[in-house]
Each structure stands twice: as C-alpha cells, then as structure tokens.
Amino acid sequence: MLAQKVARSLEIIRQASEIYSLPFVLGFSGGKDSTTTLSLLIEAMRRGAKISKLYVVYADTLFEHPVLHKEALEALESLRGIEGVEPVVLKPAEGEDYVSMILDKGYPAPSWYFRWCVDRLKIRPVRRFMNKIGRAVRVLGVRAEESSVRMRTTEIKGKRPAIVSGKSPTLRPIIDWTESDVVEYLKAEKRWDGKSFDYLINLYGTEIGTACAPTCFCPAR
Predict the structure, then answer these.
(1) CA–CA separation, 50 vs 19, rounded Å?
(2) 85, 28, 3, 81: which is closest to 51 by C-alpha?
(3) What pLDDT does residue 204 have?
(4) Predicted structure pTM score
(5) pLDDT grade for 112, boundaries at 50, 70 and 90
(6) CA gyration radius for the chain?
(7) How many angstroms separate the CA atoms of 146 and 152, rounded?
(8) How would you list the strands of the sheet with 24-27, edge to edge?
C-alpha cells in the first residue's frame, strides 16, 4: 500500500514538473510531513523530474522547539551541494520578532483566538520571499487526514487534488497519506544524505508533534 502511495506521489511531482516551468518552493518545518515531502521531491528530481530550482524555505520564528529547531537547521545544511536545491532560512522583519511584538508593541501572548505570531513570524516572511522570486509552484506537505478542519480546507469541488492549478499553482504530494504512512516511510527510507530518519521518529515518539500549547512553539508538520 505504501509503495503504491510513494509511486503515486513521485508521479504527481513529475507531472507537475512537466506542467509548470517554474521554481518549486517547499515550506519546510523540519517535522515529519514536510521532511517526507522534501525526501520525495529530491527522489523525484533524481529520477528526472524537471525541477530546475527547488527552494526549501524554513521560517525561523526563533521560538521553535529547541530540539526540532536544531534538527531542522541541520537538515537544511545537509541540502547544500545537491544540484538544483537551495535551502532558505527566513526570519521575522526587524521589530516583528516575538519579543519586540510583546515588549515594544504591547501585543498579548498568542492564543488560539489571536494567533498573531503565525502572521508576523511565518506568513509575512514567506510572503516577502515569494514576492521576491515571483511566480512559483508552492509545495505543501499537507495531509487531508490530519484533522477535520484539514479535511474541509483541502477539498475543492468535492475532491482533493494533488495539483491545484491557478495563478499560484500548488502541489500537495502527500495529500492522501495517513500519519502511519509517513511514519512507515521514514522508518524504511534514508535521508538524502544517507542519515537515518530515526531522529524524527524519536522526536515524535515523545509527542513533540502533538503537545502544542497555544503559542508559536508548536512545530509545523
């Protein structure tokens, strides 16, 4: 079953590379879903997918879980030297970091009801980067099975396409994967530099991925 999903995801990436002669931009958190998506992208490129440039973009909020933060930066560094792949680390604009927003501008601590940190620390830096490079294929490591909200937001006209066309085309290679699929993949495969993915399995084994407080410390997938 997993082998079929891997083959389908690789084919989806190949198809997208044939359709769009644009750079690809992956939002990378260092978590299990974005890491699996990155692994599939690199494998597809090795098999001939026509991706001339893959930007792997990490929005460093400066308040990520310290262990995951360290592993994410190390994973980004390991990409250097892979042809066509460029790791990018983004940080909040001056005066919009977490401490400045609270101490200098008087913002309250983020909550589920007022998650200003997501906009200032993640969305805005990524938006500035996207505006800089121009039109590109956005690659998302999202899975419809993640939650009931994700099930609704990933649906388009009753379907959940892996390739969403439009002014800003979007690629969702693991849209139909389950969490078990992701874990099984990480257990079976090696990282692009030959390193085991055990570090991720161990991290999520301690429930880092599910113990989210209503702040910016929650790691993306």
Answers:
(1) 10
(2) 85
(3) 80
(4) 0.83
(5) low
(6) 17
(7) 11
(8) 85-90, 54-59, 24-27, 137-139, 170-171, 163-164
